[in-house]
Fold this protein.
Amino acid sequence: MLFAAGVFQFATYACFFNLTPLYPEVGRDLHLDAGELGSLVGVGGIASVLVQVPGGSGGDRWGRRPFFVLAMALLTCSQIARWQASQPAMLLLAQILGGAAQGIATVNAWALVADATQSNSGRQGRAFGILNASLALGLVAGYLVAGALGGLIGWQSMSVVLAGVPLMALAALAWIPRGRPSLAGVRPGLATVLRSVAHPQRLALTLMAALTLAAGQGALYVLPFAVQQRDLGEFAAALLLVPYVVGSVVAGPLGGAFSDRFGSSRVIFWLLSVGVLACCALVWGAASSLILILCFVLIGASVNGTLPLFAVRIVGLGDPTGVGAGSIMAGLRVGQSTGTFLGPAIAGLVLAHGGLNLAWVAQAGGLAATLALHQFAPLLQHVHARRIGARQ
């Protein structure tokens, strides 16, 4: 099941995010500046947010298979819409379709792994890390195809070629069991699901996930514009995005293994601290390709080493209301999808009005805010518990 979940993650991220190294060309073709394009691209994150809870709870009720099929169908339609995107409105439609696909596929992939590791919580960190590494591999595949094929035939024509990828991913359904994954009794109502998702500790982790991924997606959005200033070309932009993925692939499973052994709190602290320093270093070192590569390895490790550990923490809170893993993971995925929207939107706005250096500082600020919230969350939880005790 971990392999199947990874296949759907790979296909989704390879297709949905592959325009990243071509953003300057997309903006030029559609007559959009960096801020306008960032807002348009970020709409996909809004669509992803809106489908998380129904997609996750629906997977708990009817099984994961039909939702993976739906996600791949939407992703195929998204690629076809990009192929026809000669106006911003058609690209907007493509982002909405792709965002919905990404939300449905990802929440069910993470819930599938949560279901599979319920009886062996000591390996959850590594399992979520491997799953996160699969999406990182999807990113690098998409970037390289965009840099090579997209630079050769254009981003619209490249999109229709990639429309076949989600269809091929459907073969992974063979490894996913039929029927409901976990719930055997009466399905909890929407109010119960929302109360579970809105648990204070889960909300804190959701906010941390949003800030973390916003910083990662923001850095990825800024990078092609930094490369454009040096006239290195589309393929160079794609290659310079690869270090982020390398850091993600290594840090996901490794961070999960360290978390399983030593606990997640210290691992999260060090990963986020490294990410803050790497973003700050880009203010002075982005003109050097070597420093750019090193910093993006560290940023990728920071962001995608941390996100699976938030999933471990979410699952570790338990499921006393019986809402199912899909509904529980939906809360975390709402945060991550919000970050997918906020990252490019904020980065594009800062880049358009404040310049490149301020854009790097903004990404450091996002990771620093996550770090601060992570450090103060136990104190806030203690105060909340004392207030509940006083009322009783």
